[in-house]
Amino acid sequence: MEGRYEFVAPCHFGLEAVSKREISDLGYEIVRVEDGKVTFTGDVEALVRANIFLRTTQRILWKVAEFRAVTFEELFQGIKNIPWEEYFPKDARFWVTKATSVKSTLFSTSDIQSIAKKAMVERMKEHYHISWFAETGQEYPVRISIYKDMVTVGLDTSGESLHKRGYRKMVSKAPIEETLAAALIRLTPWNKDRILVDPFCGSGTFPIEAAMMGANIAPGMRRTFQGQQWKNLVSEEVWQRGFEEAQDLVDTSVKMDIQGYDIDPLIVKAARENAGRAGVAELIHFQQRPIHKLRHPKKYGFVITNPPYGERMEEKEDMPILYREIGEAFSHLDDWSEYIITAYEDAERYIGRKADKNRKIYNGMMKTYFYQFLGPKPPRRKRPEQAGKA
């Protein structure tokens, strides 16, 4: 299909600005930024490139309609007015895979899904002049969100959430999503020339996401997407160009100092295997090491980590000791910056230092805090001609 369309990129609450910047950097115009989502415009190539290259968004929805509805009849008519025949072939399998409603008159998500499906079928019946659809063809999942009575309808072009890069087969007890890890890294000044250590690396998500950024490995280049099945909407050639662009940009010859530690040797082994599947095993040093042994001889590095929260009652009593150890470890890292995401509200108290910045972020339904302990910037390197004059 040719033309310009609107796409919706859901993201983590509190990190909309990060996703907005990433979409802009990819070359697309932002329409608006709302709680938990960014809307942008582009052609079908934008749909492809957004799925392959965006690191911080949950999925890419092809927005097909937006209208107001305060009754189920208005919802039915609004859905029926959408030209579904332009998107669905006669044998398509179509359904509302998810509906959400916030601060709206219509709040029963199961009813919203059921009524929307009926409206879609009625539209298809009138267009194709048949009374029954076998739905034996490709899948076209639809998502509906209602916010303050405004209904947004989108085709889910991603399928599985974009946080599923394909590399993480083994996970630790409380893994952080890949999209959230990438967004948090982007909130820091870290770049591939700076040291990065995660002393609670678990499945290796922070080190792996950082290494993929440094090596310019697109997060979606090793997976498939729902939209690849839609030959009537997006040609195979467009998808192929997107994957080829991603492959051409990879540079695994880059030199980086990225390290991941964990106290559990089995988890360290799993992290190495995950890094191998991500194509960055040679760029990360994983090691079994407890937090109290965290040391590094160089200055101006970064700690970015997701320590235990004490979610279980039996673990809560261990948290003061753990966070004191974290604070003690930080004191040995001269001129470093430390970034911690945690739901433990006494983190600063036991670390023994108030964070320079603190950002509230929702990890799913859990309220967490991104504590930022900022170190000094490293001195600027002299240019070769300046060094010669010294």
Question: Could you explain how this protein is built, in words?
Answer:
There is one protein chain. By secondary structure, this protein is α/β, with parallel strands linked by helices. It has two domains: 5-156, VC0802-like (2-Layer Sandwich), CATH 3.30.2130.30; 178-220 and 246-373, Vaccinia Virus protein VP39 (Rossmann fold, 3-Layer(aba) Sandwich), CATH 3.40.50.150. Helices cover 32% and strands 23% of the residues. It contains twelve helices and 14 strands. It has helices at 16-25, 44-53, 72-80, 109-128, 178-186, 205-214, 236-249, 265-278, 313-316, 319-331, 347-351, 384-389, and strands at residues 5-10, 29-34, 37-42, 61-68, 93-102, 139-147, 150-156, 196-198, 258-262, 284-288, 302-305, 337-342, 357-363, 366-373. The strands form two sheets. Strands 2-3-1-4-7-6-5 form a seven-stranded mixed beta sheet. A hairpin with a 2-residue loop joins strand 6 and strand 7 (150-156). Helix 2 (44-53) runs parallel beside helix 7 and helix 5 packs across helix 6 (205-214). The longest helix is centred in the N-terminal third of the chain and has 20 residues, at 109-128. The chain is elongated, with a radius of gyration of 24 Å. The model has no long low-confidence stretch (mean pLDDT 94).
